[in-house]
Specification:
It is built from eleven helices and no strands. By secondary structure, it is an all-alpha fold. The model has no long low-confidence stretch (mean pLDDT 96). Bound molecules: iron/sulfur cluster (SF4). Iron/sulfur cluster binds next to helix 9.
Length: 212
Amino acid sequence: MSQPTLLKIYQSLLSAFGPQHWWPANTAEEVIFGAILAQNTTWENAKRAIAALKNTENLSFKKIPTINLEELADLIKSARFLNQKAKALKAVADYLGNTYNFDIEKMKKKPLGKLREELLNLYRIGPETADSILLYALEKPIFVIDAYTKRMFSQHGFMKSDDSYEAYQKFFMDNLPHNVQVYNEFHALIVHTGYLYCKPKPLCEECPLSHF
Ligand code: SF4
């Protein structure tokens, strides 16, 4: 695939759906909560957990160490895998407190590669969550790969469905300008298209990418 083809796909999705305004959060800190709470569940479930934290004034990593694990798990119960996610939030809170004194702006000053390594060392943070945090919370130029991306781009024959996360990421980053806004919007558009059309049984006739 050439760079113009990938950009054409991006433009087709953008003109079909318009800007997606991701990430749907008020602050960088909220994006990090969302990236963890949305793992292996729907965004609706994650949103309910975020609302529960907000309503109890606990949507802050400074507050997380003051809540015990059981209380935290109960607050986020709508997001599934509550015990694991409660532990993950506590691990991120410890990391942010110990390394950055809870200052996200200080965190943003560190190079992308170093931050990615730090995030991947944390409990239950895999490449998709780490890259979502890097792109959407810290505005670093890295492309996020998810299951929809793999399904769509393998269906069109650009990649194989069992290619690694890293291979997919390299494919996008080699063929797109290194631009945070493009990465932000393109991933959001892929998720939107995947949710609406690129289901296990794809609805290709209605999809804006049918001619690709
Ligand atoms: S629904 Fe069909 S046309 Fe749309 S991205 Fe999936 S495979 Fe491609």
